[in-house]
From TrEMBL:
Gene3D superfamilies: Tetracycline Repressor, domain 2
Positions of the DNA-binding region: 37-56
Domain HTH tetR-type span(s) in chain numbering: 14-74
Stated name of the protein: HTH tetR-type domain-containing protein
Lineage: superkingdom: Bacteria
Keyword entries, A-Z: DNA-binding, Transcription, Transcription regulation
InterPro entries: Homeodomain-like_sf, HTH_TetR
Pfam family, any one: TetR_N
Length: 187
């Protein structure tokens, strides 16, 4: 008797959209909004380029969807850190943030978004909304006031910059700063 494998399923548009966003975050992180190719994403997830456009409507909308996913991931990290380390949620958040940045995707996507924001008010507004949502969630889950929020935002920006240029962050930001300091001697 011949048996047909009935477990072969076609992905739904929702599943393909999620796959495209994961791939898109990497592609946009490496190539930016203007120079990235939707074909790269389509090839990676095994669909046609027009199908990716049907999922998002435009390359710009696709980029914004990737920023939405980045925000979702960051908020999830913040909430998990607060839940698992209620005595010191800020330290857990900082540690989780460094881990999240390790593969370079979030760092690259954020830097590309900031670059695009210089000329694109929609992207700039979305970047401001991401920062606002993160600040609000950290404030809600910690006792950090405006000074603490500003310090943590500045530290996060420093970590992003250092990670982007390949500085070893294993020992923390201060150790990374020390590693970059070069004593100048006057001959």
């Amino acid at each position: 008797m011949y048996h047909v494998n009935m477990d072969v399923r076609r992905s739904t548009a929702k599943q393909r959209r999620a796959e495209a966003i994961v791939a898109g975050m990497r592609v946009f992180a490496d190539h930016g909004l203007m120079t990235s190719s939707i074909q790269q994403v389509a090839d990676e997830i095994g669909v046609s380029q027009p199908y990716v456009f049907r999922l998002f409507g435009s390359k710009h909308a696709f980029f914004l969807a990737c920023l939405d996913e980045m925000e979702r991931q960051m908020l999830e990290l913040i909430r998990q850190a607060a839940a698992t380390s209620p005595d010191d949620p800020l330290s857990a958040m900082r540690s989780g943030f460094r881990e999240m940045l390790a593969d370079g995707v979030i760092t690259g996507l954020w830097l590309q978004a900031c670059a695009a924001a210089r000329r694109d008010e929609t992207v700039a507004a979305r970047c401001r909304a991401v920062i606002s949502a993160i600040l609000e969630e950290v404030a809600r889950l910690t006792d950090a006031g405006t000074d603490g929020l500003a310090r943590n935002l500045a530290d996060g920006a420093l970590v992003v910059m250092l990670q982007a240029v390949g500085v070893d962050l294993a020992g923390g930001s201060l150790a990374a700063i020390d590693s970059l300091r070069v004593e100048k001697t006057i001959p």
